[in-house]
Specification:
Layout: E1 8-12, H1 16-28, E2 32-36, H2 39-48, E3 53-57, H3 67-77, E4 83-87, H4 92-100, E5 105-108, H5 113-140, H6 151-165, E6 170-173, H7 180-190, E7 198-202, H8 211-216, E8 218-219, E9 225-226, H9 229-232, E10 237-241, H10 248-260, E11 262-264, E12 271-273, E13 277-282, H11 286-291, H12 297-303, E14 306-309, H13 320-335, H14 344-352, H15 358-372, H16 390-404, H17 408-426, H18 431-438, H19 442-452, E15 454-459, E16 462-467
Parallel strand pairs: 1-2, 1-3, 3-4, 4-5, 6-13, 6-14, 7-10, 10-13
Antiparallel strand pairs: 8-9, 11-12, 15-16
This protein binds adenosine-5'-triphosphate.
Adenosine-5'-triphosphate (ATP) binds next to α7 and α15.
Keywords: Activator, ATP-binding, Nucleotide-binding, Phosphoprotein, Transcription, Transcription regulation, Two-component regulatory system
GO biological process, one term: regulation of DNA-templated transcription
GO molecular function, one term: sequence-specific DNA binding
């Protein structure tokens, strides 16, 4: 068997004899098997964990869906799982139709053991290759789906849609993990260049001495040449990630390319003309980088024709349930992790956590919960890590230590302040929704906020709660 870990094969057949026979044969060969007698059981098994392969009887008695419907669902939700159809003597035509619909192959009953094993091994090898290819594509970059129906993401999508129609250079700013890379891919996908290449250069990960070779390519003595990323992106988009980390020497060369739309390769004499739209991203303050001499002001002006800010997850907590569900679906498709819903109390906790690592941190948490948690049923609050990062844990310890040293009245005040700030931030500064959740009248909540010195302020397009440490000023709690 080519795989090192035993393969996981799901056998779906309404006849117990056939299920057991196929399972015995496959287990004797070292494969792992699971079985299902009808479509509901098959779907439960699929959702718990996607198998490496499905062996599916086309006729299923007492089943909500027939084999073809199950096949369609698998091909839609888990396209990398190959399906081998078992067909009776009289329905080979249906089996052939199933292959046209995406089944890997079919075997006829009564089946020959060698043929069964050969088909299974070939299908598993195909599935392994598909998974490897999907992983490689994942390294190149994920799909350009920009998830989030909240106001901040709607605003971002609108800006990207508008600028996509032009050819203007865009500078995306936002904290690490907020989704600048996804925003750049989305922009490319919405533009006239969508069918042309989207090429990424991450300035922070390329050795500075190799940067120019990577960007502009190299010409050899025999006039053969290696293409650089500018040339590979011809007709499409070049995404310069972490642009602040670009070596200063290379910055002036990039500036020249932006002015001339042409360059020469390293050791080359010929001028290479390119039509490339440059989108760049940074999580640093480029103005400060300019002041401190690390970034060229003229390049900044060339790159920053349209500045677009990607909001951090802490200012769009209303998107958390949707993002969570999206990552569960992605991880189910990519890694076969269980497809699970979120319980209401888990949603409440997720929306009050601090998220210093933004969407990337949320994705990592989803992965951890799906790997370590139960196989099915909604995710409970108890399955979530206490805090998504160590520094937030320190805050909580500090808070409990501080509370322990206070008389009850003051401790209650400190707790109420922390609790209400977290809840208001969770509902993006909306006092009515906060009041509804915490179980207070809106006017009573307003009075409470005032007495605790909590105000809401606009920050990066979102309303956030904070403690008003400026006497009688700073802002007012409002929707
Ligand atoms: N709106 C979104 N919809 C779907 N997935 C998202 C969204 N925003 C971020 N992600 C996912 O979160 C992860 C981090 O996003 P991304 O790499 O785009 O962040 P970034 O801001 O470019 O980070 P860095 O500054 O570290 O390069 C990726 O897995 C990405 O697919």
């Amino acid at each position: 068997m080519p795989e090192t870990a035993p393969s996981d094969i799901l056998i779906v057949d309404d006849e117990a004899d056939i299920r057991e026979l196929v399972a015995d044969i496959l287990e004797d060969e070292g494969h792992g098997t699971r079985t299902a007698a009808n479509s509901d059981a098959a779907m439960d098994q699929m959702n718990a964990r996607a198998p490496d392969l499905m062996v599916l009887d086309i006729w299923l008695k007492d089943s909500r869906m027939d084999g073809i419907e199950i096949l369609k669902t698998v091909k839609r939700d888990n396209p990398n799982v190959p399906v081998i159809i078992i067909s009776g003597h009289g329905n080979v035509e249906i089996a052939v139709a199933a292959v046209k619909q995406g089944a890997y192959d079919f075997i006829e009953k009564p089946f020959n053991i060698d043929k069964l094993l050969m088909t299974v091994n070939r299908a598993l090898e195909t599935s392994r290759l598909r998974r490897e290819n999907a992983a490689l594509r994942g390294q190149e970059g994920e799909q350009a789906e920009l998830i989030g129906a909240g106001a901040a993401m709607r605003g971002l999508r609108q800006s990207l849609d508008r600028v996509a129609r032009s050819n203007g250079r865009v500078l995306l700013s936002g904290p690490p993990g907020s989704g600048k890379d996804v925003a750049a891919r989305y922009l490319h996908g919405q533009s006239d260049r969508a069918t042309k290449p989207f090429v990424v250069v991450n300035s922070a990960t390329i050795e500075p001495e190799r940067m120019e070779e990577v960007l502009f390519g190299v010409e050899h003595e025999d006039r053969a040449h290696d293409k650089g990323l500018f040339e590979r992106a011809h007709g499409g988009t070049l995404f310069i990630d972490e642009v602040a980390d670009m070596p200063v020497g290379t910055q002036s060369k990039i500036l020249r390319v932006l002015v001339d739309q042409a360059f020469t390769r390293i050791n080359g004499a010929d001028t290479v003309r390119v039509d490339v739209r440059v989108v760049s991203a940074t999580n640093k303050d480029l103005k400060r980088e300019i002041e401190e001499g690390r970034f060229r002001q003229d390049l900044y002006h060339r790159l920053n024709v349209v500045p677009i800010e990607v909001p951090g997850l802490d200012s769009r907590r209303d998107d958390i349930p949707e993002l969570f569900k999206h990552f569960v679906d992605v991880l189910h498709k990519e890694q076969g992790l269980p497809r699970r819903d979120l319980s209401e109390d888990a949603i409440a906790i997720l929306q009050t956590l601090p998220w210093p690592g933004h969407v990337r941190q949320l994705r990592n948490m989803v992965e951890r919960v799906l790997i370590l948690g139960a196989d099915s049923g909604p995710i409970a609050a108890s399955e979530l890590p206490q805090e998504p990062d160590a520094s937030a844990g320190d805050n909580r310890d500090q808070l409990s230590a501080a509370l322990a040293g206070l008389p009850l009245r003051e401790a209650r005040e400190v707790f109420e302040r922390e609790y209400l700030i977290a809840q208001i931030n969770r509902f993006s500064g909306n006092i009515s929704r906060t009041a509804n959740f915490v179980g207070m009248e809106r006017s009573a909540l307003h009075r409470k906020l005032k007495s605790l010195g909590i105000v809401t302020l606009s920050r990066g397009g979102a309303r956030m709660a904070t403690v008003d440490d400026v006497e009688d000023g700073g802002g007012d709690a409002e929707e």
